[in-house]
Each structure stands twice: as structure tokens, then as C-alpha cells.
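User: Structure with N~2~-sulfamoyl-L-arginine, C-alpha cells only please.
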Amino acid sequence: MLLLNSGRVEASWITRGLVNRLKVTTLPGQGCLSWTPDNGPRLWPGVTMLSGVCVILVLTLGQAVLGEEAGYRSYKLVKVDAPSELKLRAIVSGRDWVDVFSSEGVSLTAMVPPRHLAELIRVVKSQGGKITVLHEDMQKVADEEYRERMRHRRRRAVTTKEQDLLTYLDLDKQYAFQDKILSGSSNAHMVKERIGRSSEDRDINLIRISADASGQKKRTIFIDAGIHAREWIAPATANYILYQLAYNASSAGLLRDFNWEIVPVLNPDGYRYSHVSSRYWRKNRQGNTGSQCIGTDLNRNFGYPQHMPSAGGSSNPCSDIYSGPSKLSAPESRALKNYLDSHNDTIVAYLSLHSFGRYILYPWGYSLTATPSDAAELERVAQVANKAMSDDYITGSSSKALYVAAGGSDDYAKGGAKIDYSYTIELPPGMSSRYNFAPPTSSIPGYTSEAWNGVQALARELAKVTAIAAPTTTKITTTTTTTQKPIPVQSPYYWLYQWLKDQGVILGK
Ligand code: 0X9
Ligand code: ZN
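Assistant:
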């Protein structure tokens, strides 16, 4: 579509499943000046002409420059079945252009650039495996997804927070939602806090939800989403959880037992980029010295127990799983790390929302052999959440249930920040669904409410088995309560302790 507007021409067209916006102006004697949100201004010198001609020139010459490299024309989605996990690893290893979407046992689904398909077919065959092309052109898939989204789009500029829960929000709408949610609840007290800034200087926001404004120190459940840009169901789920906690009166018990801290989009730059430019973008948008390629995979950058790109990450900045030059080199991972470190006296559970595949994962991701001493307890609580959802989540340590990948936020939360209950939840759809990072808008309510059921069940379980030191912000006048130490869950008197706590005789926790 072209719009003529007093010498300036604006064009918009759809590629990569996204609307591209281009403004072109004639600069007399100098040439054509184009501007796109992603590429900024660019001068096309040596041509002095009418605006309309400028547009044709820029559209024709500009495809490659103005973002075609971010498209997925003829990219294939393939399923690889290998005879063993070892052979599956051999197929992928060293091939940084294989963008693994999901993986289960001896199979994986990945997106592959067309120029590498022949090589992949050869390698899979030489390892005795099987390769099936699921989609011939991922651009078409992204375009179709975009059209589906547009069919569900609210035409009104102003939407209610309830309407916002029914769709995938672009970054501006996501920020607006965070502000909308803050006011209007009679059930909960909320504050927004900036925990850091992204590499492109955007706010990384956290919403703290508590029963009231007293500032009472309580056990806290921390949830983040959007570490990976393209996993849009994750921020949508975080928003839903925020809303339910703050606006559903039946969340009173959960607010009595816990404070909640939620970061709906940890990687705002990447999230925005996956909306406006490149649908399958995963990393942040940080530049890399000595490379044209952009971005670090934040979930390879947390450096626990140390920076280990060779364990399921990559040292190649062009890879989708680039671990970064050093641990915590990305401002987004640093922001999360600093927050967890400085609030680990209250945070009892860390939940990181990702997609897809329906997994509940816990540490360690960095090693197949290392196991946390409380793995059985982590598994037990994961099962409680699973039962409250569709009961078909795969639970387990992430290295065993999924794959080895060092540098994850969950490993840092447990090993670095010493938060006992640390989970990565891979939200729906399941592994075998034809929708990957793009479940249709119509499935959002089902998926988000399923996750909310799991989170509630997990919280109710953790209310029984976790405790923090007595609150410091509440003035306690009686001596009996200040000296009361939490009784461990194994104690035969735990039920009595819990009951006294519920009656308000013992404060805190
Ligand atoms: O690979 C990841 O970072 C996560 N899967 S995803 O498909 N969302 O990219 C899994 C992370 C599990 N945790 C660790 N490996 N520490
Ligand atoms: Zn992810």
C-alpha cells in the first residue's frame, strides 16, 4: 500500500509475516532518503526524482538491505530421527545453522536455511537417521500466522486488560498492559519496578503483587517470561498469571501465603524484533564485536557454574544459541542475576516460562551427570503442577529430559542465587503439534489457564514446605513470635506449626 503525503511517501507491505513500514522522502540534489523502524535512515544517493519513483527504487533495490536477511524464504522445518542420542548430537554438533525448535529423545525439529539442506540430508543419512521436511517455506508459515493474527486483531486503539489477555501483544502494547494492570484492583497491591535496561536501552520491568501495601516481607514466587524472544505464549501466560493474582478474588490465599514478582518480558529488544522484523528471533539484540551477527542467547549466558559454551551453547555469534563472549555479558541476564541475588532471602521459587513442548524442567542443565541433592523433591513438586495441568508434561532435570545446555537462568537461580525450587516450564503446544512458537490466537486462553492451574497447584504445595526467616518490616511486640523458628516439614509437629501460622499466632513465612 502506498500513501502520498506532500512529497513524502509511506509504504507498507507484508513480508516475514510482518508489516514493514517504509517512509521515503526526496532530498533535492541528494537522492532518496528511506527510513524503516528497524534499519533507520538510509540515503540512496545520486538520484533526484519524484517521491513515487524513490519508493519504487527503494522497494526494488532495498529488499536485501532493508531486512530480507531476516526473512525465512525457503527455510525448511525438518524433523530428524536418529538411531541414538549420541548420533543425534553428532548430526547437530558444529552445525550452527541448525536452529533447534524442539527436541525429544532421539528426535528433533529444526529450522534450516535452504543452502544447508543438502548437507543436513547427507549427514543424517550417514548417521543412519531419517529426515522429513515438515514445511518447505517457513516464510509462508510466518505469513500465514500473521494473517491469522490480523483476523483476530482488535481494531480499536484502546483495549481493556481483559482483551489484552486474548492476544499476543507487541512490545508497546505489552508495556501499556503492565501499566493498565497496576491500577484498579481492590484485591491486591501492585508496584512496577525497573530491574534493568536492555542492550537497546529499553526497560526491563518487574511487577510485584502483594496482598496489601504493608511491605511485609513474605515468601516470594518469582516468575519471568520472554527470555527467548519468539516464545510469545510465555509473556502471554505471565500476563494472565499477573491478572489472575491481582483481579481474581479467589487468589486471596495465594497472596496471603506469598508475594509474587513477575517479569513478563525479560528480553524486550528481542521480543520487539520478533514482532516487527524476524518472527523466529530467539536472542537479545546486542551487537557482537568482530561479527556482523547480532545477539546472545540469554539462556546460555548465566554462567553457572561457569561460562561453558561447549555444553549446549555456541561460541559463534551467528548461532541462535550463542552463549555470549563471557558469562553475564548481556545486560538482560545481568539484570535478572542481580535481582535474584539481592532478593534471595525471600524468593523461594523461580519459574522461567518458555515454549514449547510441555516440559517441567529443573536443574541441572549444564551436566548430564551432576544432580541436585533435592532432585526427588523438585520432581515431586513438578508432578504436583503437572497433575493440575494436562497431566502430560514431561518432568525431569533439563539435561536428561531435554538436552544438556549450560548457562540457563534456572541453573543460576538454584546454584548461584540459592533458590531451592527452580523450574523452566516449556509451555504448550506439545512436541508433536504442528504449531511451534505460534499457537493460534484462539488457543491462548486454553494454554494460559492451563499454566495458571499448574502455578496455583505448585504455590499451594510450596506453601506447605517452604519458609523464610521471620519478617523484619513488621514490628513485633510480643517476644514469643520473634524467637519462633520455622519448623522443618519433616517434623511431626509441622502440622501444628502450620496451623498456628494460619491462625496468625506465628507471623511471617
Ligand atoms: O534451550 C533452552 O534454553 C530451553 N528450551 S527452549 O526451547 N525454550 O529454548 C531449555 C532450558 C532448560 N534449562 C537449562 N538448560 N538450564
Ligand atoms: Zn526458551
